[in-house]
Structures are given as C-alpha cells and as structure tokens.
Amino acid sequence: MRRILIACSALLAATLAAGVTAQNRTGSDLPAIGSAGDSVISRDEEYQLGRMVVAGLRDQGQILDDPEINDYIQNLGSRIAAQAQESPQRFQFFVVRDARINAFALPGGFIGVNQGLITATANEAQLASVLAHEIAHVTQRHIARSIQAQGKQGMASAAAILASILIGAVTGTPDAAMAGMAVAQGAAAQSSINFTRANEYEADRIGIGFLAAAGFDPNAMPDLFETLGRRAGPAIYQAPEFLQTHPVSANRIAESRDRAALLKPAITAESLAYSFVRERVRVLGAGEDADLSKYYAALADTRPLTPAQRYGESLARLGRGDRERAASALIELAASQPQSPMLQAALGQAQFAAGWPDLALQTLRTALDVAPRNVPLTIRYAEVLLRTGGAKQAHQLLLDLFNNVAPTPEQIRFTALAASAAGDTADAYYYMSEYHIAGGDLSVAVKQLELALADPAISAVQRARFEARSKEIREALAANRKHRDRSRPDADKMPR
Question: What is the Cα–Cα distance from 201 to 485, expressed in whole angstroms?
Fold first, then answer.
C-alpha cells in the first residue's frame, strides 16, 4: 500500500506540472472568472486528477461496480446536483468497497460513498444528505481553494494534498488523510486544516439547501450526524476536530438542526429502490465468500423480513449456489412489484442461474418493454443473450442504450466484449479505445484504434469515425507533451 501511495503522489505531481489539456467533460472548458482556485489548478486539471484517482481505485478493485447500484447512486446524486443550478460541473458518483462509514469528494466532480455508509443510513434522505454535503464541497471548489491556501508552496505540495485524499479514499480513514496532509505541509499544516474545517461547515450549510430543494427532509442531515456521534461514543465530542475530515461535533449538529428548521420543503416520498439497493450493497459488498444467511435468519427470528430484506436474502442464496430457492423467492417478490426493474432483473438472473434460460429471456424482455432502455435491465438481458448465442442482438441492444445514456467504463468494456463475441472486431477495438480514454490512458487508446483501422472489413463510415477519433487523441497527446516540455525548461541540461 505504501508503494502505491508514493507512486500515486508522483503521478499527481506530474499531472499538475504538465497541465493536462484533454477536454473536460463537464460541458465547459472555460475557467471560472474570479475564482481563486483557478490561479493554482484549473477545472480541467481538477477533472483529470479526479479521474486518475478513480481509475486507480477501480484498478485496485475498490469500486463496487454493479449496474443496479451504479444506476441508483448516479440518479440519486444527479437529482441533488441539479439543485446547484449555477455550477457547470458534471458529477459522477460511485460506491467504494469499504465497510467503514465514509464518503469523499475528489477533484472534478467525482464523489465516492463507502458501502458502510449506505448500509448505516436509516432512510434515503440520510444518504441524500451525505451526497448533498459532498456536492457542496465540489461546487465551492474546496480542494482547489485548499491548494491556494497553502501560499503557493509549489505543485509538489498540491500533489501531496491530493495523494492524502487518495489515502482517505482507499483506507476509509479520515485521520490518515489528515496525517498525510500534515506531513506534506509542515509548518503550514494548522492553517490548512482549519480551512478544511471551515469547508465542512460551509458544505453543511449549502448542502442542506440542496437537500431540501431536491425534496428531501433537511432534518436528515443532523439526524445522521447524531447517529454517527452515538456510534463513535462520547469521545467524538472531546477529540480535536482538526483530526477528522468530517468532524461530528455538538456545535455542528446544532447548527445543521437550526438551519433545517428554517426550511419548509415539499418532501417527496422515499423511492422504492432505496431499501432494495441498501440490501444489494450489503450482500455484494460482503464478497463472494461471505455467507449472509445467518444475518437474514437472525432478522427473521425477530420479525417478518421486509420485501427488501427478502430480496437481499435471495441475492445471498444466489451467491451461495442455492439458485432454485432464490429464483422461487424472487418470482413471488417480482409478482408483487411488477413495475420494479430491479426485481425483474434479479429474477431474470436467478432463472438463468437455475437453468431456465428461456424463462430468463422472457422475463427480461417483458421487463424492458415496460421500462425501455433501463440500464441495469438492458445489461442483464444482454448478459443472458451473450450466453445463449444472441451476441449480435446483445451488441445492438447495448449500442442503442449507450448512444442515449452515458456508460461507465465497465459498461464500455462489456459492450466491447459483446461486439467481439458478435464478430464485430473493429467495433470491439473502438470500444476498448473509449474504455482506455475513460481511464485516462490515451496512448493505449490510440493503439486500440490502430487495430480497429487495420481490420480490412471496416466500412467507410467506420474508417472515418476511427480516424477522426485517433486524430483527436493524438492532438491531445501532442499538446500534453508540449505543455510538459514547457514546464521543464532545464530538462535538457540535466545529466543523463
């Protein structure tokens, strides 16, 4: 782990020094006039740094990459982010495989939530309150401003701050992140930490407004703070707040409670998906070797399981190979909620696993008729098609979906797999180039496009598209190299 963090720190420093120029996908590449953060790190650099951290987490298997979970957390986060009307930022939300209670905002609008936080929430509004708080960190550009607050001590210092953020993200330990920042900043550490503490209160004030505007109970934020305080015990109120990136103090709870009392939002009903996703996160986050049957059996001994808990129990059974019992339970659940894409997707998976492929295809096809272009349903249907000889149909299905909905990197890779299985080799290489672009590896993306262009079967339209994309990437690479060379004027004088 230490070696990984040192490498990440070096990569972050190099990225900042080079001034990465690839297009920012927030929808705007213009700097914010008058923003103090832009004097040190631009919005484009923020995006590239955040993307690098997320790619590192994904490579380490730290991201819980599941279509149903991804779809839910992105939709929930986007609902709240839509309230930040003046922000040009595009947000991307993801779930981290970590049982500890934590959430974090990265540069560029990337927001991570630990699985432990999701399962610790009592309702959807509490989960939304965490996302609202982290969204406020991004809209207020707290990371860039923290770098500016260091008194321009250099890009290496900025990289160290961002590397410490990565420590917190990977380990789920806020203290580790703050310790990394303190080591990096030396004598200036205290002012930096105080500034970060002020950011926390500002994120509460702005985030609670986002929360209410999105139709959630603003009291969910102080409610969650109180719950976390009770879990930590009385010591949380005595510990110095600067030792924590998310300080939960009596003052902070009182302030958020007072602010919530001033807001009178029109509160919408909790989505049906929340409780089901919470159980899905509990089961999938536990790992393949975990057996949650005892957990659900203990719950059943005290009271009847809720539909969401029965769903979680079925997923646990499916993971342990008890396929027919899982399918039978899901048939009953799906019949009780025929409009739920999540239940229909799980039923289709269970039916296929139980050896009923025709039933699985029928279930998923019917569900897609009710909810066309639903991302998890489409992916589950494509998975079954791939395994039953329908690769061509799977490829076309995914192509239609992702021409209308932005895919995640894993979904791009799955589309490449479907194209390859269908014999559409050039398209498979093209999709893999897009996968590497999403991860920031432009050199590999160019090589994938070269392989696509080498396919003699490509059409004139494909050739034009591949060549245009290759040109765009090569121009970005050349600009990066030129900027990097300018940032090292004495490079040629260094001993070789």
Answer: 41
Encode pLDDT of 180-238 as tens digits: 444 443 434 444 445 477 888 899 999 999 999 999 999 999 999 888 877 765 554 44
- CA angle 236–239–244, rounded 5-degree value: 85
Number of folded domains that form the chain? 3
Domain boundary among 229, 262, 295: 262
DSSP conformational letter for 391? H
The phi, psi pair for 346, rounded to 5°, reads -65, -40
**Can you tell me the distance from the alpha carbon of 134 to that of 199, in angstroms, rounded to the nearest whole number?**
11
63-81: pLDDT as tens digits: 999 999 999 999 999 999 9
Instruction: Let me know whether 210 and 244 are in one domain.
Output: yes
End position of a domain, from candidates 348, 381, 414: 381
Strands (E), 85-181: 92-96, 103-106, 110-114
Query: Which residue, among 98, 134, 102, 97, has the nearest Cα to 121 in the 3D structure?
Result: 102
Listed residue (493, 419, 424, 485) closest to 455, CA to CA: 424
- Asked if 480 and 22 touch (Cβ cutoff 8 Å), the reply is yes
Residues 257 and 404 placed together within one structural domain of the fold: no
The string of DSSP codes covering 428-485 is: HHHHHHHHHHHTT-HHHHHHHHHHHHT-TT--HHHHHHHHHHHHHHHHHHHHHHHHHH
Nearest by Cα to 93 from 126, 59, 130: 130
Residue numbers of the domain that contains 474 = 389-485
Q: Tokens for 122, please give them.
A: 């009592």
Report pTM. Answer: 0.83
Please report the DSSP string for 323-337 in residue order: HHHHHHHHHHHHHH-
Residues 360 and 408 in one domain: no
The C-alpha R_g of the chain, in whole angstroms, comes to 24
Measured CA to CA, the distance from residue 45 to residue 60 in angstroms comes to 23
Of the given ranges (37-41, 62-66, 80-84, 339-343), which has the lowest mean pLDDT? 37-41
| Phi and psi torsions of 114, nearest 5° | -70, 145
Q: Across-strand partners of 93?
A: 111
Q: How far apart are CA 454 and CA 73, in angstroms?
A: 39
